[in-house]
Amino acid sequence: MAKIIAIYPGSFDPPTNGHLDLIERGSNIFDELIVAILRNSEKTPLFSVGERRAMLEAMTGQIRNVRVDTFDGLTVDYAARVNAGAVLRGIRALSDYEYELQMALMNRKLRPELETVFMMPAEQYSYLSSRMVREVAQLGGSVQGLVPEMVEQRLREKLDPAIKLQNVRKQKVKRA
Ligand code: PNS
User: Is 38 in the pocket of ligand 1 (CB under 6 A)?
Assistant: First the structure.
């Protein structure tokens, strides 16, 4: 039987435990899953594409059939380039449905042979979004349990550069 490759496109700014949950679920049903970070997003991101890629690679390094990539332009064109037959997207609540339906139908209009597959993340992540994680972290709240520890650390460094400086100094002392 032919191998089914799926892409999981998104902004991932930052990647959350909800994304990771969906990646794990997707990796169980597809032969190969490519987590694809959109490069030409109009939004001003908190993390650069390189930073997001590094975080996602660290989060998914243990999952053998998952790899991380970046793309710009249309999702359907990227899917064609990597021979993907499916687009994976998460639906958390009814409020996601309208936007996701529009996107899936637009993608179907552009490339009818590409299927969109919706999966639901675990209930404990059903309210979680990158936008809320950014907002809570920027306003000094805790995002513990909502993102992997490494992402929590990157958020701390991003929002308080003094922490990054301290860590660089610690690393230098360790190496000396
Ligand atoms: O994580 P996000 O921001 O909800 O992801 C949205 C994304 C990247 C999947 C969507 O914006 C997208 O596919 N952009 C690429 C441009 C495109 O193909 N547009 C037409 C379909 S809406």
Answer: yes
